[in-house]
Amino acid sequence: MFKLLFVFAVLILSSNASVQDFCVADLKGPESPAGYSCKSVTKVTVNDFVFSGLSAAGNTSNIIKASVSPAFAAQFPGLNGLGLSAARLDLAPGGVVPFHTHPSASEVLLVVQGSITAAFVSSANTVYLKTIKKGELMVFPQGLLHFQVNAVGFNSVAYVFFSSSNPGLQITDFALFANDLSTKLVEATTFLDEAQIKKLKGVLGGTG
Amino acid sequence: MFKLLFVFAVLILSSNASVQDFCVADLKGPESPAGYSCKSVTKVTVNDFVFSGLSAAGNTSNIIKASVSPAFAAQFPGLNGLGLSAARLDLAPGGVVPFHTHPSASEVLLVVQGSITAAFVSSANTVYLKTIKKGELMVFPQGLLHFQVNAVGFNSVAYVFFSSSNPGLQITDFALFANDLSTKLVEATTFLDEAQIKKLKGVLGGTG
Amino acid sequence: MFKLLFVFAVLILSSNASVQDFCVADLKGPESPAGYSCKSVTKVTVNDFVFSGLSAAGNTSNIIKASVSPAFAAQFPGLNGLGLSAARLDLAPGGVVPFHTHPSASEVLLVVQGSITAAFVSSANTVYLKTIKKGELMVFPQGLLHFQVNAVGFNSVAYVFFSSSNPGLQITDFALFANDLSTKLVEATTFLDEAQIKKLKGVLGGTG
Amino acid sequence: MFKLLFVFAVLILSSNASVQDFCVADLKGPESPAGYSCKSVTKVTVNDFVFSGLSAAGNTSNIIKASVSPAFAAQFPGLNGLGLSAARLDLAPGGVVPFHTHPSASEVLLVVQGSITAAFVSSANTVYLKTIKKGELMVFPQGLLHFQVNAVGFNSVAYVFFSSSNPGLQITDFALFANDLSTKLVEATTFLDEAQIKKLKGVLGGTG
Amino acid sequence: MFKLLFVFAVLILSSNASVQDFCVADLKGPESPAGYSCKSVTKVTVNDFVFSGLSAAGNTSNIIKASVSPAFAAQFPGLNGLGLSAARLDLAPGGVVPFHTHPSASEVLLVVQGSITAAFVSSANTVYLKTIKKGELMVFPQGLLHFQVNAVGFNSVAYVFFSSSNPGLQITDFALFANDLSTKLVEATTFLDEAQIKKLKGVLGGTG
Amino acid sequence: MFKLLFVFAVLILSSNASVQDFCVADLKGPESPAGYSCKSVTKVTVNDFVFSGLSAAGNTSNIIKASVSPAFAAQFPGLNGLGLSAARLDLAPGGVVPFHTHPSASEVLLVVQGSITAAFVSSANTVYLKTIKKGELMVFPQGLLHFQVNAVGFNSVAYVFFSSSNPGLQITDFALFANDLSTKLVEATTFLDEAQIKKLKGVLGGTG
Fold first, then answer.
1. Per-residue pLDDT for E153 more than 70?
2. Is F27 on the interface with D (CB under 8 A)?
3. In this prediction, does ipTM exceed 0.90?
4. Shortest Cα–Cα distance, F9 to chain C (Å)
5. Of C21, E42, E64, E185, which residue is least crowded by CB atoms under 10 Å?
6. How many helices (H) and strands (E) does chain E have?
7. DSSP string of A60-107, one letter each residue
8. Stretch B158-181: mean pLDDT, rounded?
C-alpha cells in the first residue's frame, strides 16, 4: 500500500510544484501593477511570512510626538499580493498623526495601549469622530481624510491594518508644504494665507 | 428555412432574457457595495445610456470662479457598475478647482477649451505639475491630491473621466473647514494657525 | 465673498449627496455577492465605524481552552464592502485554535499578549511554522490550512485581520465530524479509522 | 469534555450563522452589478448547487444544425457570484455555432463527443484555428470573436465553461440582422451590400 | 523645532520610498496579466502622465472617412494599471467607425465637435441608438457591438474613454475579412454569401 | 478604394500591435501576484490555446484508485490571467478524491462517464451531498472542503473547471500527514489520536 500511495503522493506533489499559493516579494525583480515579482518558492522560508519590525516602539521625539512604522509589502515581503498590510502608531502625550489619506486602501485601527481620538471626513464633509479605547476598533473607509490624536497623558499605541499590501500614505501637510510647489499655487488652491504657507514650508523644508 | 431559424432565434433570445449586459441604476432600490440596484431591462431605454447634463457651462459666479458638474452613476444611471464616470470643469479667468482627491478612482483630464495648469502630489510628496492645452490629456493616479487652475485669461473647459462609476470627491478645504470639527483639533492635526482656521471656517460655513 | 462661496458649497455638497464613500451593512436588506445592502447615509453614525466587541477577553472555559470572537461585517457593519475584517483570539494555557481555513481571505495575526506558535501548510504540503511573540506579525495566505497554539503558560491574546469583510471560517474538525456526513464517507475520504471518526463525531455532536 | 466542547461548538456555529460562503441567486430579488440577490441560507439545499439541464442533447433541428444550452446563474442559481458558468453545445453534421462573443468572460471548451473545428480572432485580426478532438480543451480569451463548427459526419458535443456567472452571448449575425436597425445604417457600418443585408434580415426576422 | 520635524520628515519620506502610487509602463520590461512592468520611480517625470498625441486631428482620407487614434497604456504609459484609457475619433462627412467591440472595457463617448449617431446592440439583440450632440455623453457597456457615424455635413470629433488601460479594439469587418480565414469557414459561420465575402476580403486584403 | 482602405487597415493594425488580448504564460519569466509573465505575441500560436493532456485517462493504480490531472496555467499556458482552468478526474471502482480545498477558486464539476457522489461542507458545517450522473454539473464554492467518490462499479470520469488559472489544491490528508509537522502539534490541532496520526504519517511519508 505504501508504495502505491507513494506514487500518488509524488504525482500530486509534482503537479503542485508550480502552484502559486503566495507571491513573496522579490524587491529586486520587476514590479507590475499587481505588485512586486515573486521570489522563487525554493528560497521562501517561514521568516518571509513573519515580521518583527513592529514589536518595538517607534521614536516619538519629534514635532508630532508620534511615529508611524509601516509593514507594507516593501518591509514585509510575505504580504505581497495578499491584499493586506499593517503599521504601528506610537503617540506620546500630545502626539498626533496629522490629517492624511491612504490612496488605495481602507484601514482598521486597533488600540493596544492608552486611548486615541480619531476621525475621518466623508465626501459630504461629515466628520465621524470618536475616542477609541484599548481593545476597540475603528474603520476608515478607502481614500478619505483621517487623523489620530493621543487622548491620554501617557503613551498610546495602536496597530492599523490596510486592505492592500501597498496602501500608500499621503500626509496632507507634507503634500502641500514639503516640496517645491510655489507658494502662489498653494495659496490659489488652498485659500490659505501666504504667510501661513511660507511658515509651514519653512518648518517642513519646502521651497518656492 | 425561415421557420427553422425562427425556432432557433426564439430559443436563443429567450435564453438571453436573463443576461445582464448592463445594470442601469435604479436609484430607489437597495444599494450594495458594488453600486445601485439594476433597473428592470424592460424599462431601460437608450436615454439611460445618454447624458446631456454636461453640455452647458456650469456657473462660475462663485469664490473659486469655477464649477464641477458631475456625471456619476447617481446623475447618469447607465454608468452604474461599468467602472466609468465623468465630470465637466468650467474655469473662468482666475478659476480654480482647489486641492482634492477622489477616494476610489483614477482620473483622466481632457482640455477642450483654453489651457489648464494641473498637478498631483505623490505619496513621496513629489509634485507632478504641467500646463495642459486644448486636446491634451493628463492622468491623476487614484486617491492622490491634485488641483486644476485656469492658465489663460478666458474661460477654460475640461472634461474628466474616472475609473469608477462612483469616484467620490473630497475637497481638502471643505473637509477641513466646512464642518463642525473643533478648531483645536484642526489646529492639532494640520499645524495651521488658529486664526487661519477660524478665518476659513468662517468663509466656508464651518463651526467649532 | 461668503455668499458666493456658500452657493458653491451648497452646489458641491448636494452633488455629493449621492456619493457612496462607504456602505454600512443593513443586515435586514437583501444581500448580493458583493456583501450586505447599504444602510441609508442619513442613519449612519460614527458608531457604525467603531466596534467594542473585541475589547473583553473571550471565554476559554471549553475543550480547546480558546475562543475566537469575530468582527466581520455581520458584527461590525461599517466594514461591509471595505475588504477588511478582524477577530480576537484568546488562548488559555494549552489553548488551541485547531486547523482551519478562511475560504475567501488572507489573514495577518498580531500577538498582543504572550506568545503563539502558528503554522500554515502550502499546497505543496510544506509547513511554515513559527513562534510569534508580542508585537510580531504573521501572515497566512488565502485559503490555506493553519492553526494557532498558545506557546506559554499563561493567557495569550492575538488579533487577526482579514482581506475580506466576510472571510469565512471553516474548522476542519467541525467540517469533518460535527454534522451528519456518514462515517463510511468520512472514512473513505479521509483514510481515518472508523473508531477515530466515531469518537470525534461523539465529542463534536455529529451523527451518522 | 463533551459539555465544554459543546459550548465551544455552539459558540462557533452561531458566530458563523451570518457567514456568506455562497450567494445562491434569488431570481426575484433586486439585482446589483455583482449579480443576483442571495437566497436565504435557510432555504438553500444541495439542489441549488446541482444542475441537470445539460445532460440531455439540445434540439439541432434548426438552420444552424446546432444548439447552445446555457447554465448561467439565471438557470443554475448556485453559480451566482462565483465567477463560473457553463453551456452545452450540440452540433449535428454540418452544425455551426456562428461567430459570437461573450462580452464579459473567457471560455474554455471541452469536446466530449466527436470533433470540433474552432477559432478565435485577436484584436490584431490573427486567426487562431484548430480542430479539437474528444477530451481536448481550447480557450477563447475574453470578448474576442470565435466560432465552433462540427468537424465530423456525426453529432459532436462539447461543454464550455466561462469565467463569469453571467458571461453574456452576442451572436454577430443576430446583433446585425435580427432587429430594427435600418438597412442603411447596417450597410454604412459593415460595408456589406444592401441585398445581402436585406436577405439576412429576412431570414432572421429583422426589419428596417 | 525644525530639527525634530526634519527627523520626522526624513523618516516618513524614506518609509515612502517604496510606495507604489502608480506604475508607469516600461514598455521593454516583462508584461503580466495586470499590465506592463513599472518604470523606476526615479525616472518618472510629469511627462509620463501627460499625452499630447490626441490634440491634432487624425487623417480621415481613407475609405471610412474616419480615424481612431488610441491613447492606451502602450501610447500613454502613465495610464498603465490605472483602469483608464482614451482615444480620439475624427469623422469627416460620411465618416464611420464600423461595428466593433472592446473585449475588456466599457466606453464613454464625449462629442466635442459636430454630432454623431451611435448605437450599441445588447445580448438580447436590442439596438440602443441615438444621435449625440456636442457636449453630450453616451456609454457603451463592456464587450458589446457598437458603431459611430458622423451625423452632420462637416467634421465631427469625439473623445472616448475606457474602463481599462488596455481596452482592445476588434473591428468586426477586419476580424472577418482581413486575414486568412477561408471563405468557406466565413460563409459557414456568418451566413454571408460567398461573393460578398470574397468582395470584402479583396477590399480589406484578406486571403483564402 | 483599395489603396485608401489599405492605409486605414495598416494604421489600425499597427495601433493594435501592443494590444494585450491575452497573456500566454512564459513559464521562465518573472511571476507577479497576477500570474506568469506574458510570452511575446510574435511567438504565440494556436497550440498555446489548446491542451491535449486531459484526453487520456489518468493512472488509477494507487491507493485512492483515482487520479487528478491538472490543466492549470503551468500546464496550459494559454489560460494565464484569464480566470479559468481545468482538471480531469479518473475514478476506478472504489476511487476517491479525498477531502480537499482550492484556496483561491470555485469549481464546477461535469461528469462525463459513470456517476460520482460529491459533497462540500459550508462554514456552518452543513453538508451538501449529491450523486451526480453523466452530463450533470455540481458547483463547489470557493475555498470550502469537498470530496468526490465513484458511485458505480466501473470507471467514472469527470472534468472540473475553476474560476482561477491557478486554483491551488490542498488535500487535507497530505497537508496534515505528509510533512514534518510534529505528531504532537498535529494531535493538539486536530484532536486525532496519536496512533492514528502516526499511522497516516507512515502511509503518506510524513515524519515527526
1. yes
2. no
3. yes
4. 42
5. E42
6. 4, 13
7. --STTSEEEEEESTTTSGGGTTSS-EEEEEEE-TT-EEEEEE-TT--E
8. 97
